[in-house]
TrEMBL record:
It comes from Demequina zhanjiangensis. This is FUSC family protein. It is a multi-pass membrane protein. The chain crosses the membrane at residues 12-35, 66-91, 103-123, 129-150, 162-183, 212-229, 235-254. The keyword Magnesium does not apply. InterPro entries: Memb_transporter_dom (IPR049453). Keywords: Membrane, Transmembrane, Transmembrane helix. It is found in: Membrane.
Length: 326
């Protein structure tokens, strides 16, 4: 029986999820001790950006390179802030810089451009050097946690033409999305960039499945989170956010995408509701609209470009001229 065929996480998945949550909590606590509340976002985004590569069978120089990329992109975003001309360039350049990782290890760097997009949209918290160090701290921390837990995953190389096409499309779409969000001054609009980046895989068939999962899971999670915020006291809503985070990691272990995404949404919306109950509906609606919009844009990009590149590579291989796999 494969992990994907399981409907509920087994005991081992829950154990790993709890340990991983404690590890991430320790990373964020360390970031808060180093830089106060402003250190939480860069460190968390460093964790998110690194988590794709951390369990892969990759040499230490490659993982060090990912840490450096996250640090540099975070610092650059903090330097330019919410500049509608410069931040899209930083995000686009970050997406292009992930191409070598995609070629060698697969879709391990999809969330990396999210870091500069969010840091810049929030106005560059804490300054360039602090942001760079905290992003590196989060990335290194999650790499250590993954190693201690013993999580391992094989590298899944992507053909060079497909990886380049995917990287260029991701860079262009992410840059445009950031520019639009800043120009329109959309609150939580950076969630659109998150939806776009995490959905736009170099395998276009996965993009189709992930788009549906993102839209459905986000909607379900938002509705559940609103209901919980209405009936539960504020302190208990915060507890729910923590439990949902653990459950999301457990469902990630068995690759149940809709459940994972719904639980992620419950975590985000519940945390916001606990901080300010009056914004629950606003946060939930913004999450659904922004993530859904980003996912749809990613699907369009994948169907127009990535799918065609995959077909050309397949035709080239059938004609006896195999495309390079890096």
């Amino acid at each position: 029986m494969t992990a994907r065929s399981l409907r509920r996480p087994p005991a081992k998945a829950w154990t790993l999820a709890i340990v991983a949550t404690l590890g991430i909590g320790a990373i964020l606590a360390g970031a808060a001790m180093l830089a106060g509340a402003d250190g939480l976002v860069p460190a968390l985004l460093g964790v998110v950006g690194m988590v794709g590569l951390a369990p892969r069978e990759a040499p230490m120089p490659a993982k060090a390179g990912m840490v450096a990329l996250l640090a540099v992109s975070g610092g650059a975003a903090a330097a330019v802030g919410a500049d509608a001309a410069l931040l899209p360039l930083v995000v686009g350049a970050t997406a292009l810089a992930t191409i070598p990782f995609t070629i060698r290890y697969g879709a391990v760097a999809l969330a990396v451009p999210v870091l500069p997009a969010v840091i810049g949209a929030l106005g560059g918290q804490g300054g360039p050097w602090s942001t760079a160090l905290l992003a590196a701290f989060g990335a290194l921390g999650v790499a250590v946690v993954v190693r201690l837990i013993g999580l391992k995953a094989p590298a899944t190389p992507v053909k060079v033409p497909v990886a380049w096409g995917h990287g260029i499309v991701l860079a262009l779409l992410a840059a445009v999305a950031v520019a639009v969000v800043l120009w329109q001054e959309w609150g939580h609009g950076y969630w659109m960039v998150i939806g776009l980046c995490v959905v736009l895989s170099p395998e276009h068939l996965k993009v189709r499945a992930e788009t549906g999962a993102r839209v459905v899971g986000t909607a379900i999670g938002a509705v559940v989170a609103i209901g919980l915020a209405v009936v539960l006291p504020h302190w208990l809503v915060l507890v729910v956010a923590g439990v949902a985070m653990v459950a999301a990691l457990a469902y990630a272990a068995i690759d149940r995408r809709v459940e994972l995404i719904a639980l992620q949404t419950i975590t985000v919306v519940s945390a916001g509701a606990a901080a300010d109950p009056d914004t629950t509906w606003e946060i939930a609606l913004a999450r659904v609209v922004a993530i859904g919009a980003g996912a749809v844009v990613a699907l369009i990009g994948a169907e127009l470009v990535v799918a065609g590149l995959e077909r050309r590579v397949e035709e080239s291989e059938q004609n006896g001229a195999p495309a390079s796999d890096g």
